[in-house]
Structure formats: structure tokens, C-alpha cells
């Protein structure tokens, strides 16, 4: 357990991301849906997405991403694992203990956090709290989702948007002034607008339904766009104010990769130049809780994020939930691109 002097901040010490090998591009979708590559790109900025194949699950993606983050951190042990997901392998039990077991981390605290697309920011805040409280000195935070399993296969409004993936970071106890220290955090929700993004059936309120579409995601796209743009901008301003940063000090804005138009709208609200907005949605689609760590990984690998850079992070998801945080980018080792030939970890320990 950490000593009192170690509890000041959670510091980013490792980073990893993984995408399932099967890629579905816009041309393939246009063969079976009333859509086109131009229609999808114009409205979302997405060109392709990675999709799980039969037998592959959220736990698989989370395990792969977690293993890469641990390797990047040069560590094979943590005190806790927080998994951000809205698509667990089962309704019960939580998926985090299974991920921990596969990584050889049996016995540690492991639990799920569900704030949907804002889940990774919520999980970062949760893990930071564990470290600040002295309950853990090192935490593996994973965001993984298989949202392709929640979209109605013939719905051109949702199928092109969502992809599957996993991303993870290792946080260690450290001091607020060092590179990689996370915070401040700004978190919010509005349950009165829960119906804007909802899967109606399958939970305790509606366990079963005779309408098959009740088991798929229903989304009011126009309203979601409006709320996402405004809420992410408001939250980002709060974090900048708390951090004492001016907007023109931000080197990179890493927003949830839901839609390139939302990212551009948030940047415009904030006054962040387009060239400082990290965008990888063209190759991944909306990967929900995996979105932020996937974007961070891509930006780290391609050199966009450099040690000392001031990085602003913000996300918005169903619930409604949204939140933001900030950090100065650290020096990280062994960070691999998620766009590579891949394998699946099946062993109980690495």
C-alpha cells in the first residue's frame, strides 16, 4: 500500500490499446444498407470500424488492452482493476474480475464502471480516488466495449457509427507536479435525458420484450449532438479553470470519438484550433468507453503527444453522463499501435 506522501496524485505510467482484427469499411456496409461511403463520412467522419466476430467478447478486448498497458508500464502487478464498459460479457457477474484473472491478477480488487461513452473518464476518476485514499498504489484502468452487439443490424442510423475495441492505462501513485499526473476532474450526469440513448430491454425494468428492436440501441441523434457538444465544452472549461490553464496553452484536445462534427463543434466552442484536436474516428468508429484510450494511443504512437504537452480530455455518453480531465503528457515506453496484426490472449496468465 502507498505511504501517505505517495497519495497526492494518480500518474499515467502505461498505455495500451487493442482492436479486433475484423474490419468493416463503409463500402461493405453500403452493400447491405441504404447508405454510402460519402454519406457516412460526411455525417460522422468514419471510414471503417473493427467488429468482434462470433466467440469474441468484451473481456477478450479488455484483456488484450490491459496486457499491453501493463507491458508499457513495465509491471505485472497492480492493486486494483477498474473496467469501464456498457457491454459486459454477462449482466451478472461483472466482467472486471474475469479480466483480472486472465491477466494473472487474481485476488485484487476488480469491478466494472458503466457510464457508457464517458465511462473511461469516470473510471480514471475512480482509480485516482483509490490512489488518493491510499487503497491502491497502482491501478489498471480499462475501457472496452462491443457496441456492435447492441445495434440493430439493418439500422443505417447506428450500424455505421459504432465499432468495438479496448484501451487501457496503468496509473501509479505520485505527486501532483510531475508529468502524467491526472486532474482536476469534472463529472456530471442528467438522468432526465436517459431516453436519448437507450437499450430498452434486458434490464430489470423490462426483462423481456416481444419486440426484438427493444434489445438494440435507440438513439435520438440530433439531440445527442446538441447536448454532447455543449456539455463537453462546459466541462472542459471547468477543468481548464481548475487547472489554471488558458485555452491557448492546450497542446492537444482528446475528445470522445463519437462523431467528427461533435469534436469540431466542441473545439469551436472552446476556441481550440482544429489542428490541435486528436481525431482517429476514421479508422475506429465510436468505440464507446475504449474511445479515449484508443485515441491517446494513436496520438502517442504517431508523435502528436509529446512529453510535457498539456492534454485536455473530455467525453460524453448515455445516461446522460459526461466529464473531463487534464494532464501533462509523460514519457511512456513500449506503446504499440492498435492498428497491427493481432492475437487473442486466452491464457489465464501472461
Structural overview:
The chain has 350 residues and is an alpha/beta fold. It folds into two domains: 4-174, Thiolase/Chalcone synthase (Peroxisomal Thiolase, Chain A, domain 1, 3-Layer(aba) Sandwich); 185-328, Peroxisomal Thiolase, Chain A, domain 1 (3-Layer(aba) Sandwich). It has helices spanning 26-30, 37-44, 58-73, 96-102, 119-132, 221-243, 260-270, 281-284, 291-301, and strands at 9-18, 23-25, 48-50, 80-84, 109-113, 138-146, 164-174, 185-189, 197-198, 218-219, 252-255, 310-317, 321-328. Strands 1-7-6-4-5 form a five-stranded mixed sheet, sandwiched between helices. Strand 4 (80-84), helix 4 (96-102) and strand 5 form a beta-alpha-beta unit. It starts with 8 loop residues before the first strand and ends in a 22-residue tail after the last strand. Residues 111-191 form the Beta-ketoacyl-[acyl-carrier-protein] synthase III N-terminal domain. Pfam families: ACP_syn_III (PF08545), ACP_syn_III_C (PF08541). Keywords: Acyltransferase, Cytoplasm, Fatty acid biosynthesis, Fatty acid metabolism, Lipid biosynthesis, Lipid metabolism, Multifunctional enzyme, Transferase.
How would the blueprint of this fold be written?
Layout: E1 9-18, E2 23-25, H1 26-30, H2 37-44, E3 48-50, H3 58-73, E4 80-84, H4 96-102, E5 109-113, H5 119-132, E6 138-146, E7 164-174, E8 185-189, E9 197-198, E10 218-219, H6 221-243, E11 252-255, H7 260-270, H8 281-284, H9 291-301, E12 310-317, E13 321-328
Parallel strand pairs: 4-5, 4-6, 11-12
Antiparallel strand pairs: 1-7, 2-3, 6-7, 8-13, 9-10, 12-13
Helix pairs in contact: 3-4, 6-7
